[in-house]
Amino acid sequence: MIVLEKRPQPSQTWSMATPVVAVLATMFFGGVLFAALGKNPIEAIMTIFWEPLFGEFSFYYRPQLLIKGAPLVLIAIGLSLGFRAGIWNIGAEGQYIMGAIVGAGVGLAFYPLEAWYIFPLMVIGGAFGGWIWAMIPAILKVRFGTNEILVSLMLVYVAEQMLASVSLGLLKNPEGYGFPGSRNLQSWDSAHNAELFAGSGMHWGVVTALIAVIFAYVLLNRHMLGFHIRLTGEAPRAAKFAGVNPARLILFCLGAAGVLAGLAGLFEVAGPAGQITIDFNVGYGFTAIIVAFLGRLHPVGIVLAGGVMALTYIGGDIAQSNLGLPSAAIQVFQGMLLFFLLALDLLTNYRIRLASKEVA
Amino acid sequence: MTTPLLSLQGLTKAYPGVVANDTVSFDIGQGEVHALLGENGAGKSTLVKMIYGLVKPDSGKMVLNGQAFAPTEPRAARADGIAMVFQHFSLFDALNVAENIALGMENPPKMGDLAARIREVSETYGLPLDPFRTVGDLSAGERQRVEIIRCLLQDPKLLIMDEPTSVLTPQEVDILFETLQKLRSEGTSILYISHKLEEIRTLCDHATILRLGKNVGECTPAETSARDMAEMMVGTTLQTPERSGRDFGEVSLDISGLSVPSPSEFGTALRNLHLTVRRGEVLGVGGVAGNGQDELLGVLSGEITTAPDAVKMKGQPIGKLGPTARRKLGLLSAPEERLGHAAAPDMSLTENALLTGSVREGLESNGFLKWGETQSFAERIIKEFDVRTPGPDNAARSLSGGNLQKFVIGREVLQNPDVLVVNQPTWGVDAAAAASIRQAILDLAAKGTAVVCISQDLDELMEISDSFAALNEGRLSAPRETTGLTVDEIGLMMGGAHGMEVAHV
Question: Which of A66, B174, B204, B351 could form an S-S bond across to A201 if both were Cys, CB 3.0 to 4.6 Å?
Fold first, then answer.
């Protein structure tokens, strides 16, 4: 009989090891899945994990890692602050969209002027757009005690409707031959979030993501506010006893997540995507939830997790085109990762004992 | 000598790192009230759990009425006539008495029949109880009756009671004892767990004393002094806390006309409270649990805010201030619930030292934390209050209850408060540690701190407090000087028998 025994305190070793074991388990069972689909499992796994990094065309894929990874990390950092405090913002996708809309809108208001201050203003606009969208669930929660999970999620769909609306109306490119979508910011120097070094994939979003990581690390480990965030998540009553103001914490955590998601949206629309379109958002805001948990809600862990997640995206694309794997199989593969991670998490707080079967 | 009802022979149970019971042997006679005495952690609970089938012994055996007895689960133990009243009730507040009892039965009879049975049993044993009242409305004493009746419906041969009087007023204790006497006269044996020596002396025929998992002696309580029993429990001579004659200074804490609505559905509203505590004075607040103790602590710690003037410290209105601002002014507090309220279970002791120590110990500057100084503060608490732990990096939940309590009290005492509020400061703490906590509180008072000590342990309050008041259904009786108070007077201040009928048997 298998017995779970609670550890006197959480195991440091397992806390570090579970993400790695989860990735390995996903590789193994993903391989089984691919084999069941009639593909060579070794080849499929190699394609996903090896090809983008060291394959023939890695010179193209490696920069893609940064481009896909940066928004994931940026959003996940913001989400992790709230998750640590037990504030469940799952509407980062909406905040991401609103950041892109407001940021791009601020920029396009100056078109076709060329000036150094346009891009910084767009950055501020992007942060503001994400922030204001996150303030809706925050204020509703503080004032009326609504559930932030529901409100933030619902607002994603509202944001998607806004995105469709501005693509077809307000921000529509007047010279776009009637196609929905804004002007392409890539072809306007003052608004373009270009690569800082050509061919590196390094753009301002990557830099901001790294700054956010450092900021979050310092906040959580060295600052009273970060201590209060962790305390609220672990023992809400103790947090109240310690003098934490829950309303302020909700506003801060949701606000920070909104700002970072909005920035991610802005850097995306001004860089890799280039324009506001109806299908601008590709689910970074939701995938970032997986990244945040895969990274143990720890800033450094999130960087690693963002890398792994970006890898499965890019590798998954390659596997689809080269091996003909269905895209659903890739999604199952990514889902497995979260599944194994959550399951193995148990080992951080419990140990498994094999007890001899008791004689009745 | 007749065959004992239950004979324990060499019971041993080890957990990782600790031997909870080490070859414990004793007999419980037919119709005997047998006391099981010992400090927290002495192994009483483990022993009882083995009898009740919750824990399986590693070695040793039990003989019930001459037959080998090895229950694998509580159901088997109940089938063999063992019943147990736990210290913490397992009742649903929102259901009525009969529904609660039906939930614990294998094959509950129809509600009408069950209610009739409950009435019958409750009247036979002098425990009047209406089967259709909602449990949430019952006093602690009445809730305990529900648990006892639940047991009596099984017609037990052995009734195990774990610290039954900790939630009762002295008058309620008398009612309970009459019931137990009646059960004994009918031939039911009772295993009575307690560390309150005076009640054991009045009630029990025989006592077994456990210390560190071993049976260290037996005695006839009526013929042994409480002090001797206590010393057998602790294994050393006991230090009685010393109080020097103190002069009280000006008023430090002043509560007037304080009323607060109940913070939750089954909480207690505080009604028109008045109290003053002077420098150097210890005010003891007694009362049965659930009569507003948690709320009173919340109002003083700043977790519950009130009208500014309702709570004053040194003349300054502080009712509107939150916990941090009050700490800054020198008002510190230690709640009853250690894990989750006074301390965060999964955080280290260093982090828990920061939890209340940040303001007064200067552990932050401009919001940035000084971990080095926080750790030395945690180490100081561990050292001065003899907290048994490998070090400040250990999680709070890895400490035993008593050790964590020492940490929590130590954390506040070392910050030199002007006013200290503690709720159940020695709950679940062994006698030696309890004595040192009480001494620390008295030393603090001697230095001029005003102390409010909320406790359900009357002996404790009599020992350390200068004046005494009791909470009863959210009302506070007028404080009186402790010297000269009799147990009867205290009981009446606590609400007497809470309207419970006295047993007529």
Answer: A66
